[in-house]
Amino acid sequence: MTLVDATQDYRSSVRAWLTAHAPGPAAGLTPDEQLRRAREFQAALYAAGYAGITWPTEVGGQGLGTAEQQVFSEEAAEFELPTYPFIIGMGMCGPTIVDLGTPEQKQRSLPKLLRGEEIWCQLFSEPGAGSDVASLQTRAVRDEDGWVVNGQKVWTTNAQWADYGALLARTDPDRPKHAGLTMFIVDMRDPGVTVRPLKDMSGRAPFNEVYFDDVRIPEDAVIGEVNRGWQAAVTMLGHERVSIGATRRPRSNPLEFASLVELARHEGVAAEPTQRERLAELYAHERALELFNARMRQEAAAGNPPGARGSVAKLAGALLLRRAIETASELGGADAVAWDPDDARAAELALGINSAPASSIAGGTNEVQRNIIGERILGLPKEPQVDRDLPFRELKIGTQRQGGVG
Description:
The protein has about 400 residues and is an alpha+beta fold. It has eleven helices and eight strands. It folds into three domains: about 5-120, Acyl-CoA dehydrogenase/oxidase, N-terminal domain (Butyryl-Coa Dehydrogenase, subunit A, domain 1), CATH 1.10.540.10; about 120-230, Butyryl-CoA Dehydrogenase, subunit A, domain 2, CATH 2.40.110.10; about 250-365. The protein has helices spanning about 5-20, 30-50, 65-75, 85-100, 105-115, 230-245, 255-265, 275-300, 310-330, 345-355, 365-375, and strands at about 120-125, 140-145, 145-155, 165-170, 180-185, 195-200, 205-220, 220-225. The strands form two sheets. Strands 1-4-5-8 form a four-stranded mixed sheet. A four-stranded antiparallel sheet has the order 2-3-7-6, with no helix packed on it. The protein is globular and about 70 Å long.
């Protein structure tokens, strides 16, 4: 059997399984019912061999290549799958533990994540540490049993559901800001953890602020090495940017090319040259991003990880979504800003338009991605950083302007 035949057989099996097992629309389900359905579907994915496709078999993955992962992503785009609660764990936290976790951490956490038994979140950003994550002030202090954490995180996706999180905290304020950080596994059900939702302009609350009050973390919960959390964070951010850039929204998404073509026909403007040109440009950008992500997956399989090129995918994805918003607004006209209560199409379009701008911020702003691309890929000089070598305790940033770090 040739590689093409094997890939086609795999595609056929994926398509048949998804056709038989993909759940229907979630409309009318309560949040608890939606979460239960998501867990059940993730468990079914695992049982069928479609969870952790490229993860090592010793941690519960399938041990397959990027070609199979690409096939699954392409076929899954034809369905609205309830996998959203697991995107952080599967795309960011899990792969980082695969790379840096101890054997015990891998055996304890990864199979449960794959089976949908646990949901994870990423705890990096703070009110005073957004694009400059290394300036974070959440503290982890050693005691005889491990560590005690105090501080606040913000813009945390899925924290309202999470069982565990990957927490970046400052463990040595006498070192420069990038050098005194450590990454931990934190139990989100600890009584000292408080999660509060943040509602955005779409009317939903996809993000949260999280408070830590004397939260105890055992010594064996360190991911990587103590005071080398920045290196662990770079690993996770790399996975995050590749994951965001490579994510394929369902073809039924109101901002996907196929949906926008349908919208143009519905509005009676599909034959207008200007609108056809807009749609053609959008298709070209969508296809270029798909091919770029396919190339990165193939190179990663050959032993050449994407590194800073993940920022190219992330930036390209955000710019593509911005172009889709502009196209949708032009095609939808008044339906993009006001609609009849019973017009589900227009309501979905407006929700997509209002939600999409977050893509230029989540996972690192477009400006941050451009800096990474310029410095690490194009070899341009770094911006001056006068605070890089100073002890963090001496920096006057965030709330330290009033009192310093204790």
